[in-house]
Every structure is written in C-alpha cells, then in structure tokens.
Amino acid sequence: MTNDLTRLSAADLAAHLVSGEVSSVEATQAHLDRIGDVDTAVHAFLHVSTEDALATARDIDSRRAAGEDLHPLAGVPIAVKDVVVTKGLPTTAGSKILKDWIPPYDATLVERIRAAGLPILGKTNMDEFAMGSSTEHSAYGNTHNPWDLDRIPGGSGGGSAAAVAAYEAPLAIGTDTGGSIRQPGAVTGTVGVKPTYGGVSRYGLIAMASSLDQAGPVTRTVLDSALLHELIGGHDPRDSTSINEDLPLLVDAARQGAIGDLRGLRVGVVSELSGEGYQEGVSARFAESLDLLRSLGAEIIEVSCPHFKYALGAYYLIMPSEASSNLAKFDGMRFGLRVEPEDGPITAERVMSATRGQGFGDEVKRRIILGTYALSAGYYDAYYGSAQKVRTLIQRDFDAAFAQADVLVSPTAPTTAFKFGEKLDDPLAMYLNDVATIPANLAGVPGMSLPNGLSDDGLPVGFQILAPAKADDRLYRVGAALEAALENTWGGPLLAKAPELEVAR
Ligand code: GLN
After folding, report:
1. What is the mean pLDDT of the segment spanning 382-411?
2. Which CATH superfamily is domain 2-308+393-497 in?
3. Angle CA(300)–CA(303)–CA(304) in degrees, nearest 5?
4. H or E stretch including 408?
5. Contact 121, 49 (CB under 8 A)
C-alpha cells in the first residue's frame, strides 16, 4: 500500500484522504520514503523537511477526525522550488550566496499552501536564481532526469519536475520567467502551467526578472494542476502586479475538458514555432496531437506571429537587465554569505566584491554583466529600449492571433532532454531551448505544457497550449481533452512508460 500511494494523482490521493482510507501521515510518509529510496540518484531535493511535513500531516489528520471542513487538497504533500521563501525552511535559490539562509517569512503562495494543510516535503533544486534550462547551473549539483539519469531534467525548475516525475511528490511549485515550468515539464513527461502574469502572487518569490516571473503548478495530470492553481492563485494586496479579480474556474474547465468535446474551438498553430531546429520526433508527435484535437471537434488553423523570431533576443536583454538590479541586494551586508577579503582593508566595497565574486556562479555573473551593460547610459535606448519595443510588437502578435484563434499551440521545447555537459559551454545553444516558451512571458499570457508522447529517442516531448491573459481556464479545457485522448492511445499515462528507478535500500 505504502508504495502505491506515491503513484496516485493528487486528486485521487485527496479522495482517499476524504474517505478515510488513508491518513495524511501515511501519504506523507510514503512520499518521504520514496524520496529516501530514489533521491540519491535523482537529486531533486536540496532540503527535505521531514518534521515540518509530518507535523502538518498529523494536524490535518486530527482536524479531519474532529470533523472540520478542510480544503479539498488538505493532507496531500507538495514540494516547493527553492526560489520561493519558506519560513523556517532553508531557501537558497540554488545559490551559494544564500547558503544556510532561513527566511523569517512565507511567500503568499506558501501561506496558502500551509493554510490549506498541504504538508511541505521540501525544497527542490534549480538553476542558480532560476537562470538556465538544465539545472546544471545549481550551486548544489545536478538533478537527474528520471527517464534517463544521464540526462538533464530541464530548467530552471528541474528539481520540481523530476520530483513529480519520480513519484517523490504528487504536486510541486515551479516558477517560469522564460519557460522554467513548461520546459522541464516537457522533458520529464509532466504537466506544468505558467499562469497569466499577475494571476499568482509573486510576494516571497526571490525575483529574477519581475516583469516576467510567475509561479505555477507542476503535476502529473491536468486536473491536479487546476486544483493547485486555484489554491495558490488569486488576488494578493502584497503584490502590486496581482490581478484584482477572481480567477476563472479552472477545475471546472479541466473536468469539462476531460469529456472530450472541443466542437467550436479554434486552435491556432503558430507557424513561427515549428520547422527548423525542432527535432523530428518532436514535430511528429505535435502533428499527431493536432489530428487528435481535430478528431475531438476542434478547428485547426495556421496563424503567424512574425515578431516571435525576435523574442529570444528581446528576452535576453530585458531579463538580465531586471535580474542585474534585482540581484544587487545580495551584497554580503544584510543576509546570506559574507566573504571578507583575504588581505587589505575590510571596507564595505571590498566585502561586497569578495562576497559577490565567490557567491555567484558563472551564469549569474554573465547575466549581471549583460544586464548592467544593457542598462548603462549611452546603451539604454539601443538595447533595453529596443527590447521593450519588440516586447510590444510580440504582444500585438498575440492580440492578432487570439482574434483568430481561442488558443495557440506549439511544441513546448525544440528537443528532448540532452545529456549533461552537452550545452554547458555554449550559452546560446542553452538559451535556444526556450524559443517556444519565452513569447508567453514577454506578453504575460498563460501557457501549459503537457506530455505529448515519446520522440524517436524514447524520451518525452511536450505539447504547449497558450491562451489570452486571464483566460487560463482555456488551457485546462483543451489540456484535459488532449490528455484524455492521448492516454487513450497510450493505454494509460505517459509516465507509466518511464523505466523504474532503482531503489537505494
Ligand atoms: N531558461 C530560461 C533562462 O535561462 C528561463 C528561466 C526561467 O524561466 N526561470 O532564463
């Protein structure tokens, strides 16, 4: 029984908890055991919060026994990306500069998770400050893709995706600035959603690029993402960019979608997000899913977004610019690492320089330098200013496309998971992994990646769905319909095809 609990979706596990068949302590312990069994090999977690998780589980079990009215996900364990601050639990953002930092407060989304009674299993590995597409830029070692331990799990949220794919957690939190929820989802065979910008509070996320960052769910099913999205989403007065409106009904949309009737829905295939650079198996699976959508009654049309070809260039000016100013606060003076120069006077400037020199990794330094340069007097208009103009053009492309289609679709990532080290010496090759995911961040629109089968190399590929801002429900309707149709053709979930991980005991 213990082992089986880790295979259940969050929705199914929640049903077992409600019926009283299973306690939250049992469910939480089963996942902690699974972490003990496989995480030496996977390394999805930077910190496992055993005591904290079991305390929550015990509390929920006794409140349930007392007949209290609980949140539908109460007692279902969850993993949280290490860029989200958690009171009393270490939070490093994958960086040495925050080693051993214990935040004195919770992010809003963590407050909501705790209030609903979800035991927090631990904090997941990530590229340092969420900069990367492979989790190889973590200061704490690589996370391994459960499909093939010699390969990357995507990034920056490789830890959350790998934890969910390896059955170490049924739910996880990710963050997505340019694709860090969706691309790891694609290469690990999991579901990931980047909500509409402003849909989930950013209060308590360690900011990378504030105008692009969004937190969202990482799960094994579309319905589970909807359940988690509804829990963490909605207005927060502590985030000035938070949308002050009710969320659309996401769980309802997922349940409706699963019925599999997409008649009347117009699906736009973005012609700029296919073709050259996309692996053959990725394109083939994508085309097959379009046929499936057609068979469910959707109308498939081609749309053009001519400025998407400049998205990557604009992103790699805007993101580093914002990151360079957001990361200025890590100076060795207030919290985290402090390094004093080995010789010479101990001045504030020299301590800052030594701290930042040793505390930040190469990719973070590269982006701080890029961003500082793009913002410097004399270059500001040419670089940052032009990038902002491109951003507007991309937003207009989306507006035009959504006038023709209810949702837009593309492959999530151009390739399957690559091997460790393959792109480490070539930052541009690494950046290119996000060509299909970045436009949504620049425009603030929501996006989902869901498992779309295996490429010729036997590794998972993702299907991306994009919707207009504040219409996140469309992702769930279409995603649940496609998921059901795909699982019908596979005879079950895609993850059932993943090799069993060797257990360490
Ligand atoms: N891979 C992209 C980058 O390196 C996206 C990162 C993210 O979404 N956090 O910037």
Report:
1. 97
2. Amidase signature (AS) domain (3.90.1300.10)
3. 160
4. strand 407-411
5. yes
pLDDT digits (tens, 9 = 90+) for 79-136: 999 999 999 999 999 999 999 999 999 999 999 999 999 999 999 999 999 999 999 9
Residue 43: predicted pLDDT: 98
The answer, yes or no, to whether any atom of ligand 1 lies below 6 A from the CB of 434, is yes
Per-residue pLDDT reduced to its tens digit, 483-497: 999 999 999 999 999
What is the CA(213)–ligand 1 centre distance, in A?
A: 9
What one-character DSSP code corresponds to residue 152?
A: -
* Strand ranges, E, within 43-119: 45-48, 78-81
Would you say the CB of residue 130 lies under 6 angstroms from ligand 1?
yes
3-state secondary structure of 452: strand
Query: Is any ligand 1 atom within 6 A of the Cβ of residue 359?
Result: no
pLDDT given at position 15: 98
How many A from CA of 193 to the centre of ligand 1?
A: 14
Does position 153 have pLDDT exceeding 70, yes or no?
A: yes
For 348, phi and psi rounded to 5 degrees? -55, -45
How far, in Å, CA of 319 to CA of 194, rounded? 17
Strand 78-81: give its sheet, edge to edge.
45-48, 120-124, 78-81, 171-176, 214-219, 191-194, 447-454, 460-466, 407-411, 266-270, 299-303
Alpha carbon 485 to its chain centroid, in Å, reads 24
Atom of ligand 1 nearest to the CA of 316: 10
**Which pLDDT does position 505 carry in this prediction?**
66
Is any ligand 1 atom within 6 A of the Cβ of residue 117?
A: no
Catalytic residues: 81, 156, 180
Give residue for tokens 């006794």.
62
The model's confidence at residue 248, banded by pLDDT at 50, 70 and 90, is very high
Would the pLDDT of 222 be above 80?
yes
Interhelix angle 24-42/50-65, rounded to 10 degrees, is: 160
Atom of ligand 1 nearest to the CA of 181: 8
Cα 427 to ligand 1 centre (Å):
12
What integer pLDDT is reported at residue 334 of this predicted model?
A: 87
As a whole number, mean pLDDT of residues 409-418 equals: 97
Nearest-angstrom CA–CA distance, 185 and 437: 12
Q: Where are the domains of the chain?
A: 2-308+393-497
Testing ligand 1's pocket by substitution, the residue of 152, 367, 434 carrying the most ligand atoms inside 8 A of its CB is 434
pLDDT tens digits, residue range 64-85?
Answer: 999 999 999 999 999 999 999 9
- Over residues 152-175, the mean pLDDT reads 98
For 290, the token pair is 């379009």
136 lines ligand 1 (CB under 6 A): no
Omega before residue 156 within 30° of 0, cis: yes
- pLDDT of residue 1 exceeding 80, the answer is no
Of 502, 500, 367, nearest to 430 (Cα)?
367
The SS3 call for residue 217 is: strand
